Predict the structure.
Amino acid sequence: MLALDGIIQLTEEDEFAYQEMMTHVAMFSHPSPRKALVIGGGDGGVLRELSKHSCLERIDICEIDRTVIDISKKFFPSTACGFDDPRVNVHVMDGNAFIKGHSSEYDVIIVDSSDPIGPGEKLFEKPFYENMKAALTGKGIIASQAESIFLHPKIVAGLLKIAKELFPVHGYAYMLVPTYPGGNIGVCLGSLAPKVRKPARFPDENIKKTLKYYTPDIHEASFKLPAFAEEILK
Amino acid sequence: MLALDGIIQLTEEDEFAYQEMMTHVAMFSHPSPRKALVIGGGDGGVLRELSKHSCLERIDICEIDRTVIDISKKFFPSTACGFDDPRVNVHVMDGNAFIKGHSSEYDVIIVDSSDPIGPGEKLFEKPFYENMKAALTGKGIIASQAESIFLHPKIVAGLLKIAKELFPVHGYAYMLVPTYPGGNIGVCLGSLAPKVRKPARFPDENIKKTLKYYTPDIHEASFKLPAFAEEILK
């Protein structure tokens, strides 16, 4: 189990649910992603999932804390194996600073952040989303860790408001992660063009064998929220 | 919070998720239910949800433990209000014994049991399901508390195997209940005729106002399981 500042970040038992949904909902929504960026995600799990997409030519990751990367490589090799992909380029710096130096470059950006306290706080604010939007190609998609609609409805609503203001296509999807508080967490999607509620591409047989959570069916189903959540986010 | 034998049964914060999905997936799958039975469910929450269906003429409940009913009425009035419906008839006895005395009588049977240890154990075994099948009308549906596919895959698989053997239509749906271990729990559906994966009826405006979890969309989505769960249950 990896904990940062006393908060569980991943357990090997159920990390697949989070990593797969954070990555593949955005990736399979994009018809032809070639370049992806991960902000945060120092455990390497999102990289591992991205590396399953042979269409990607380059995968950048910007993680603020080198220790997270080192510890993950040492203790969580089945997660950190994502760093082994030769397409991966590691940048150890603040994600908000990194993103400002890039323009119209990424097809998919995934923000695998911790909670909005401490170093992760800026990653839940509008300027960061504006910078991400500028770093996307014309049909780009962002996917960011968006907390649980049951436990943190205000945070979810805040993120989705930003996504609505900046992206013509947007949505909130959730996944089951039993070891997280409340047992679920969500991902906020913002897209400049592709639909996100249905996949544009489908896992081939090779990818399918590696997936324990994501299916095209659950991609669509994960956007169907309980009535109270629809009300909060409408 | 109500705990039995040290295990959380309900909290007022999120009991709606469980009660609504346990009740309405089965109820809205049936085109014209007139008589319903609850086995267990002494807190009254499933009764409260059943009472929203004006098409019901009679609602029986068979709870083994009168104390659960009394405590719920005293401390959880917003849940136990289900007992106030004049269509409700309370039977305090063992559910397995009760069901044997009934034949071709119920359109919908809901088993709101505790975990399969102690008094609830028999309610997870095939003879009980055979007795329930015999107590259903020709187009009847059963819905039973079926544990979490993440935490108790063997129990879920066992129940679904029974449902497959006895019912031409069957399925497992899940719902988010943050205060339960793992944050989710499921319902096992068995139907003699109606489809269960899509609603046959839809909430009218009056019911809709009272629903915090159930929607026709989430009815369908709740049957879409993570890849690993599809594999276990196929």
In short: The longest strand of chain A covers residues 136-145. Chain A is about 35% helix and 25% strand.
